[in-house]
Amino acid sequence: MAQGVIEMKSSHEVDTPVENSIQYFLDRFYMSRISIRMLINQHTLLFGSDLNGHERHIGCIDPNCNVLSVVRDAYENAQFLCDQYYLASPELNFEQYSGTKSNVPIQFVYVPSHLYHMLFELFKNSMRAVVEHHGPSCQKYPPINVLLVMGKEDLTVKVSDRGGGIPRAQSDLLFQYMYSTAPRPQPDASNAPLAGYGYGLPISRLYARYFHGELIVTSCEGYGSDALIYLKAICEDANELLPIFNKTSSKHYGASVPSNDWSSQFLYSGARHYCTTRKQTNAEQEHKSSSSTA
């Protein structure tokens, strides 16, 4: 699917309405796929002959999911890929704080594979940004900092890097399936690409939203970026978020792009343009008045 989107973008000129429809369709398509895969895996692990090897797991759900263990696992696998491509990788620093129970490892009810997918994609992005921003001549790369916080309602995972950040104008494009800051990956059966398809953040956000969580990215251009994963700490609140298919959803594909009712920096150049236009208008009015008087 990702390869097809890349080929379509390279061979066809995609306008804004079509891109919005593609984004809307893929979000709903992949969210449905996540739900179907979750249902199949849960049924297979509960009633099939092959168990997942974890006695405490209920199917693919871990009632005591150790967040720090998943963080380390995702980091080590992302580090392996980063070392393959760049022969270097930043280290990991982590800190955890529990607002409910002190000196206790942060655990909650969740699907470890979902959390792993989100963290793995974030670590890959951060490692690539850090290595490319500081260059191959850097003796020691700034570490990636992870903060785990357990609150009464939310579990927050914050991944911070010093990879140079991104411009604020590009922040809205990060979760677009047709956008990627990495070059187009070359087909190679032996090695998996580190980045380039543009599917990492959009799919990770869907995994977070599947149980009513969220994933956001904030950036300081010239310094680095922060990615925050919000998950429900109370399992009763973590219900499935599924797309609804009805007549209302089908009308979305025919909706036109709303007209812009705010000034844009690409259309106007601020106060300078206003002053110039104002002077021209006053000059024209003075010329008309002098002509009528004559």
Task: Describe the overall structure.
Strands 2-4-5-7-6 form a 5-stranded mixed β-sheet, covered by helices on one side. A two-stranded antiparallel ribbon has the order 1-3. The protein is 42% helix and 16% strand. The protein has 294 residues and is α+β, with helices and mostly antiparallel strands. The chain has helices at 2-11, 16-47, 67-86, 112-134, 200-210, 247-251, 271-293, and strands spanning 62-66, 92-98, 107-110, 144-150, 154-161, 214-220, 224-232. The model has no long low-confidence stretch (mean pLDDT 82).
Topology summary:
Blueprint: H1 2-11, H2 16-47, E1 62-66, H3 67-86, E2 92-98, E3 107-110, H4 112-134, E4 144-150, E5 154-161, H5 200-210, E6 214-220, E7 224-232, H6 247-251, H7 271-293
Parallel strand pairs: 2-4
Antiparallel strand pairs: 1-3, 4-5, 5-7, 6-7
